[in-house]
């Protein structure tokens, strides 16, 4: 069963009003792989903001990288929405699959750059609704492309991502209906 997201229309409408920040962003706990991906962008001169515990162990704030504490509740959704680019870097248990951010970022209308997986491309059209990478060069190239999009191009992707998660039932409410139908068939 895939993960999902839970964003009300009211929450989405509030987050959508946030002014855009044309930087990359990562929201989540720091680890060596996530640090490595962020460092690739920094080495390419691309600005990144990180939110979450332990990032200050890896980075000292500068013009290219800003370090913030974790974000929760409404602030979490605002951060996912207002940055031009949201990085999604899997933990080892999610490799070749998907994770919660795979649906939370598009669910709030964010632009996601995430690891390539067969599951990811079954959920989203690459380059239209989300972006995926298979190599370090693709991380940097895609991030640069996303950050240099005109506002209208970014809005098209944001809209397409949000429409996809709504149309195809990626919300937890829809996922729970699917689980219910599986159990109903099993026990009837």
Task: Give a verbal description of the structure.
There is one protein chain. The chain has one domain: Glycogen Phosphorylase B (Rossmann fold), CATH 3.40.50.2000. It contains 8 helices and 6 strands; from the N terminus they run αβαββαβαβαβααα. Strands 3-2-1-4-5-6 form a 6-stranded parallel sheet, sandwiched between helices. The mean pLDDT is 90. α1 (9-16) packs across α3 (73-82). It is an alpha/beta fold and 188 residues long. It has helices at 9-16, 32-43, 73-82, 101-107, 118-123, 136-147, 151-167, 172-187, and strands at 21-27, 48-51, 65-68, 83-87, 112-115, 131-133.
Please state the structural category.
alpha/beta
Domain module tally: 1
Largest sheet: 6 strands, parallel
Give, in spatial order, the strands making up the sheet with the most strands.
3-2-1-4-5-6
| CATH architecture name | 3-Layer(aba) Sandwich
| Range of strand content | 5-15%
Number of strands: 6
Number of separate helices: 8
- The low-pLDDT segments are none
